[in-house]
């Protein structure tokens, strides 16, 4: 398997990990996956930083999220854009998602995420 394909699979795994209810409740795992300067523009129009995510997500119920149409694009040798669609079962809502992952200290961390609600 090529280096590019391995990276795409690794980032897919990281994205799907962040969608799991048990991971969203783990401050430790969230802290590891999100960069200290993380910013999210949510599908509700809110802007969140890492501290807010660490306080908010662990107290939420599992939203039952599924993902498809995952794609990856290099922004630089240490930054990657991922795009995909998700369905949130608890809200019966579809959205387009994008994340920027950066490689720092021998690991990939999410530095930016955005969600945009869509019809399907």
In brief:
The protein is of the alpha+beta class. Helices cover 29% and strands 48% of the residues.
Question: How far apart are the termini?
Answer: 33 Å
Average pLDDT works out at 95
Query: What general form does the structure show?
Result: globular
Helix content: 25-40%
Please provide the ordered H/E string of secondary-structure elements.
HHHEEHEEEE
Extract low-pLDDT stretches.
Answer: none
Strand proportion: over 45%
Q: Which structural class do the helices and strands define?
A: alpha+beta
Corresponding CATH architecture:
Roll
* Neighbour order of strands in the largest sheet: 2-1-6-5-4-3
- What is the makeup of the main sheet? 6 strands, mixed
Radius of gyration: 14 Å
Could you tell me the number of beta strands? 6
Q: How many domains make up the 3D coordinates?
A: 1
Q: So how many helices?
A: 4
The CATH topology name reads Nuclear Transport Factor 2, Chain: A
Classified by CATH, the class is Alpha Beta
């Amino acid at each position: 398997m090529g280096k590019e394909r391995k990276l795409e699979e690794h980032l897919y795994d990281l994205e799907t990990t962040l969608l799991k209810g048990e991971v969203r409740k783990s401050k430790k795992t969230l802290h590891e996956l999100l960069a200290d300067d993380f910013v999210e523009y949510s599908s509700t129009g809110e802007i969140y930083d890492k501290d807010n995510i660490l306080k908010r997500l662990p107290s939420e119920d599992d939203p039952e999220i599924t993902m498809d149409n995952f794609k990856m694009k290099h922004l630089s040798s240490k930054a990657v854009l991922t795009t995909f669609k998700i369905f949130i079962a608890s809200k019966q809502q579809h959205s387009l998602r994008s994340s920027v992952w950066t490689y720092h200290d021998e690991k990939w961390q999410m530095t930016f995420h955005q969600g945009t609600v869509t019809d399907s």
